[in-house]
Amino acid sequence: MNGALVTTERLTLRKLTLADAPFIFRLVNDPDFLVYIGDRGVRALEDAEAYIRNGPIGSYERHGYGLWGVALKETGELIGMSGLLKREQYADVDIGYAFLPEFRGGGYAFESGSAVLGLASEVFALRRVIALVAPANAASIGLLKKLGFTRSAMQAVDPDNTVIYERSLGGD
């Protein structure tokens, strides 16, 4: 499916496909992605295809959700990804996002993050979402707070100084 999963005022969120490999290659090799999210070992377009196949597409098949491509509604140009991740070491689903440098600071992460939280609650019936963030990533922490997340008392399972934020989506 290459159609829209959800649209916002300026954006379309859609499933990633293997055709998005050039975009993924550029995104996951961005210096900020490497510092704050980590090196995904994507060194060639074939690696980007494997990343999409094993990551987002595999997650869509297993859970119904994953990281979705965030495109400008007007042009269809991919500018980032945003979505939901289920990591084995955590009971809760976490929100993830990354944007190309030239699209940071324009409110796109907040707009897509709000849409992802809506999907989490309304489509996937999640009651709580967590976020894993590097403590030095002030921009991401600011975004999480704007999205209604608060610092969690939970300890991160991975030992790389990750901190956890959480947000209740309703219910108890």
TrEMBL record:
InterPro entries: Acyl_CoA_acyltransferase, GNAT_dom, N-acetyltransferase. It holds the Pfam family Acetyltransf_3. Residues 11-170 form the N-acetyltransferase domain. Coiled coil: none annotated. Gene3D superfamilies: 3.40.630.30. GO terms for molecular function: acyltransferase activity, transferring groups other than amino-acyl groups. It comes from the Bacteria. This is GNAT family N-acetyltransferase. It comes from Polyangium jinanense.
